Task: inverse folding
């Protein structure tokens, strides 16, 4: 009984495959016909440009200034400190969040005791503790 069902299925599928193949051929012929009608317009192609001299600096130096907002406000509690870093200096916050709890407390303690609360000192503290 099982072999009979398989033979019927095969007999039904074989003509379907030939039909699908024939339809693919017709579709491909249609595409080839459309592609033959396409004309290229070379007027918009790039013209060969003359070589221009480009000045390349060998020494790079920072010419910017520290921005006013690159400071951390004094007197923030731990939650405010972390929120400030997360909202304003996300890269620093990502590294800060990788620290263990003790090292995070150390960064906050150094921030809270510092006279000058610039972002650079916070970043340096975070990076120094990450390297340990």
Result:
């Amino acid at each position: 009984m099982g072999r009979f069902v398989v033979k019927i299925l095969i007999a039904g599928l074989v003509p379907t495959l030939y039909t699908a193949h024939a339809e693919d051929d017709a579709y491909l012929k249609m595409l080839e016909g459309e592609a033959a009608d396409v004309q290229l317009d070379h007027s918009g192609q790039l013209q060969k440009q003359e070589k221009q001299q480009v000045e390349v600096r060998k020494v790079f130096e920072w010419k910017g200034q520290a921005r006013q907002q690159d400071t951390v406000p004094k007197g923030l509690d731990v939650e405010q400190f972390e929120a400030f870093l997360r909202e304003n200096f996300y890269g620093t916050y990502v590294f800060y969040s990788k620290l263990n709890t003790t090292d995070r407390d150390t960064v906050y303690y150094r921030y809270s005791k510092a006279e000058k609360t610039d972002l650079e000192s916070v970043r340096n503290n975070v990076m120094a503790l990450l390297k340990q």
User: Anything to note?
Assistant: Residues 78-131 form one domain. The mean pLDDT is 78.
